[in-house]
Design brief:
mainly alpha, disordered N terminus, disordered C terminus, transmembrane helix
């Protein structure tokens, strides 16, 4: 027993029942995101033309990746691009149904991990090209990490689920997410981003409804007051703090909610709420964007987070 008067530190995990309900709510949100994606990707233009076109390597990507996409496009064309596109939409529908219903959750979540990773190497272009203007590794790799978060948050029946096991699962997700933020932060320190940080917000206004344009313009005007270099440095510092906090497990009481709000802020400005949601293009507006999924992972970590509490014995 702790010595009287001596401060004792212990893991103070959330109430298990409340935590289960929170994980279920996050799973339902993720499922609704997949419903949105599936509905958009059922558009005939995406099925018939844009799916195959979206796989083509972007200018500036490595020769080996260009060869890979050429091979993949040839294989898909030989099988029948519309059929392959429909298959990917069907997989997305399966993921949505499982997430919303809880049926076959773990095996389907593993399918989600693999499926989104493979699609990241194709439609996601590995997040590249990693040339001037790059900011992150792309959307689909973050989807893959979210499925990993789900698997860690909702362990298999019979798996260890004591305090140590929960802390271990939290640590795995924290380190993976920290590595992702380290990559993001590194790109924010590039001279191109710092000198052109305002352009990401300005570009996101194109094709948007008037209220979103007006909303983003508020931030554009504010950034002009302080200077886009100052804003670029702020973004770089903020993402570095998030990355270091996640990797070092320091300041999580502040880093996790800050990261959540920061991700929402980026999504509603530089990503234009994931839009514009007009004609299907195969990119942008066909999914809800990248940083909204970052926010979802922050939410998972906040629910999983085991705060240290010091109490007098």
């Amino acid at each position: 027993m702790p010595t009287p008067g001596r401060a004792a530190a212990r893991w103070d995990l959330h109430d298990y029942a409340v935590q289960r309900r929170a994980f279920r709510a996050l799973r339902l949100v993720f499922g609704l995101i997949w419903v949105f994606n599936v509905v958009y990707q059922l558009h005939p233009a995406y099925i018939e033309r844009l799916f195959l076109k979206s796989i083509a390597a972007h200018h500036g990507q490595s020769a080996w990746y260009v060869d890979y996409t050429h091979w993949a496009m040839g294989l898909i064309a030989a099988i029948g691009a519309p059929g392959v596109a429909l298959f990917t939409v069907a997989v997305g529908a399966l993921l949505a149904v499982s997430l919303l219903s809880g049926l076959w959750l773990r095996p389907v979540a593993w399918i989600g991990v693999v499926f989104t990773f493979v699609m990241w190497t194709l439609n996601g272009h590995l997040g590249g090209p990693y040339t001037a203007g790059a900011t992150d590794p792309g959307t689909l790799i973050v989807y893959s990490l979210t499925f990993i978060a789900l698997l860690l948050a909702e362990p298999a029946a019979g798996a260890a689920d004591d305090e140590a096991a929960r802390a271990r699962r939290y640590r795995i997700l924290r380190l993976l997410f920290g590595a992702l933020w380290t990559f993001d932060a590194a790109w924010k320190w590039t001279p191109f981003f710092i000198d052109h940080s305002l352009s990401y917000l300005v570009q996101s206004q194109a094709g948007q409804p008037a209220w979103i344009v007006a909303y983003i313009q508020i931030f554009v005007d504010a950034i002009k007051l302080v200077g886009q270099q100052a804003f670029g440095i702020f973004a770089a510092v903020a993402e570095t703090v998030i990355a270091v906090g996640l990797l070092a497990n320091r300041g999580m009481r502040f880093v996790l909610p800050f990261g959540f709000l920061y991700s929402i802020g980026v999504w509603t400005t530089a990503e234009g709420w994931g839009g514009p949601y007009g004609a299907v293009t195969g990119v942008g507006g066909d999914v809800l964007g990248t940083t909204i999924i970052y926010a979802l992972i922050f939410a998972y970590l906040m629910v999983m987070y085991p705060p240290m509490r010091r109490s007098e014995a």
